Inverse folding.
């Protein structure tokens, strides 16, 4: 997703240009920085953002999370490969396709230029002397290119390398990408490698007249890269034209569609129509296995404690804990008391969750020179991820138990008409964003209650997409609805542990009428006038369906 998803703990900022999908993005194609941004790697990142672009509209839909009620894959991202000669208009075609698609949840335009290989000192010397062939297939790290694209297609996170055209070297920093519904890959050799071609759902070749490409290249390099006309012509004759004839043009036979480099409006509209149809097919496939079926089940509180749910842990119902829930459920409880006892409950839950982390024995010498056999955490990275906004009340208790814990967040909200969850925003710690660390990290996932389980289902899937093992996810919640989606969660993710404070028996269907009913107007004397609300039938027809846990504690965090 976008660079707004980063946290302070990440190794490097994910510098990606974020543009509303309905807006017209910039059409300039910049590969080499000018002096506008100043020297340094930061300028390189900003300029490459123009090549690697994320366009978002309304969040990641549930059908693109690629899972059904059993946690199985439903579908992958739709990948388009666009190849063509240098300055043929590939980037322009990619952006025109995005414009023609209209409101698509998340689109990534991925450039081949990011995947140039790391160069040896000998290669660097040739590059600075303009004697290195950057148009040859050997200049591209094709295995890394295919690996990153495969991860994005499968819905997993990926860290895209950053290449500096001023240093002629790949930088140590990377760009974090996750959650694209459509991926557009553009580059002169985008169709050259067989491993890449297998990942494309649609292959496009931009055919353009050689004279027009040369004229565009001279204009671009002189204006944007500060080169001389003689230098551009020398490079074109030495490397660009031979590479086009030998490697680029032959790949046109692999293309499904040949698009002209100019006057291509009709071709782009046809492509957009085809892509929209494929996206709709993804949606219909998901709806057949919709999370809307996660509703009340014939399940009693006692059933949650049997052998079918070995990973569900309920706090021991002591008189103190029962007293806390009594205060939290009481309508007469003051705001201050509610906050105080919510913090106490979250602390108890966090302490219980700590028992499921791995420990090793450690001996220490006490002040009286006695050996004490204790325990020490056997994991390097432990972090928390809160499902906004109801997960917020659990954060303070977790910070009391682990003071320096790194926190992230997920914003998952229901779509108004269907009630399906949408992933609108995520901000994850560095230990999750880097898959090598995520495989060994333990994550406390925080939410106030599990009703239908739809938000919890998506949140767990997001962590799995980043490489966090199921057994390393500990879901901490205050209340679980006995007849809700906990059974689906346990069936789909049997190794995820759920720690809860109590079990409530009822999950009642209701309507979020506050979304549609206006407040009664006040009269001149300050009293409430006649309500102007719609009828209940009209409100239910336009309102948002919700499932209410009863007795519950209300809408925590809202």
């Amino acid at each position: 997703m976008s660079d707004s998803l980063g946290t302070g703990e990440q190794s490097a900022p994910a510098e990606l240009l974020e543009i509303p999908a309905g807006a017209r993005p910039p059409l300039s194609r910049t590969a080499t920085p000018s002096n506008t941004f100043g020297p340094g790697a930061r300028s390189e990142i900003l300029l490459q953002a123009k090549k690697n672009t994320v366009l978002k509209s309304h969040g990641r839909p549930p059908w693109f999370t690629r899972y059904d009620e059993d946690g199985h894959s439903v579908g992958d991202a739709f990948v388009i490969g666009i190849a063509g000669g240098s300055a043929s208009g590939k980037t322009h075609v990619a952006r025109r396709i995005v414009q023609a698609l209209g409101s698509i949840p998340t689109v990534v335009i991925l450039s081949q230029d990011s995947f140039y290989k790391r160069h040896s000192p000998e290669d660097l010397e040739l590059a600075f002397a303009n004697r290195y062939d950057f148009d040859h297939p050997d200049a591209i790290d094709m295995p890394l290119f295919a690996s990153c694209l495969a991860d994005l297609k499968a819905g997993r996170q990926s860290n895209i390398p950053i290449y500096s055209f001023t240093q002629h070297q790949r930088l140590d920093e990377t760009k974090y990408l996750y959650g694209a519904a459509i991926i557009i890959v553009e580059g002169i050799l985008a169709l050259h490698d067989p491993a890449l071609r297998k990942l494309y759902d649609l292959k496009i070749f931009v055919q353009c007249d050689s004279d027009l490409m040369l004229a565009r290249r001279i204009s671009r390099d002189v204006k944007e890269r500060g080169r001389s006309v003689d230098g551009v012509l020398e490079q074109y004759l030495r490397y660009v034209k031979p590479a086009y004839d030998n490697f680029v043009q032959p790949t046109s036979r692999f293309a499904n569609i040949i698009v002209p480099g100019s006057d291509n409006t009709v071709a782009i509209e046809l492509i957009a129509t085809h892509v929209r149809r494929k996206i709709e097919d993804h949606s219909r496939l998901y709806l057949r296995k919709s999370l809307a079926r996660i509703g009340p089940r014939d399940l009693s509180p006692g059933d949650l404690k049997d052998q079918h749910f070995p990973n569900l842990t309920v706090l021991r119902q002591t008189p103190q804990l029962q007293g806390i829930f009594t205060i939290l459920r009481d309508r007469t409880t003051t705001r201050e008391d509610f906050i105080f006892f919510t913090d106490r409950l979250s602390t108890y839950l966090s302490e219980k969750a700590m028992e499921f982390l791995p420990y090793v024995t450690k001996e220490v010498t006490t002040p009286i020179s006695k050996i004490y056999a204790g325990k020490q955490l056997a994991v390097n990275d432990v972090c928390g991820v809160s499902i906004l906004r109801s997960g917020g009340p659990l954060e303070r208790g977790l910070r009391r138990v682990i003071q320096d814990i790194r926190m992230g967040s997920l914003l998952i909200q229901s779509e108004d008409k269907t009630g399906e969850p949408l992933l609108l925003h995520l901000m994850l710690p560095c230990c999750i964003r880097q898959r090598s660390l995520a495989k060994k990290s333990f994550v406390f996932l925080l939410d106030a209650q599990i009703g239908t389980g739809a938000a919890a289902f998506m949140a767990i899937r997001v962590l799995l997409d980043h490489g966090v093992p199921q057994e390393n996810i500990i879901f901490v919640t205050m209340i679980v609805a006995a007849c809700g989606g906990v059974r689906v969660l346990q069936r789909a993710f049997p190794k995820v542990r759920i720690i809860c404070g109590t079990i409530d028996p009822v999950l009642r269907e209701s309507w979020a009428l506050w979304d549609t009913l206006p407040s009664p107007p006040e009269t001149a004397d300050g009293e409430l006038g006649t309500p102007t609300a719609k009828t209940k039938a009209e409100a239910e027809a336009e309102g948002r369906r919700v499932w209410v846990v009863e007795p519950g504690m209300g809408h925590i965090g809202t």
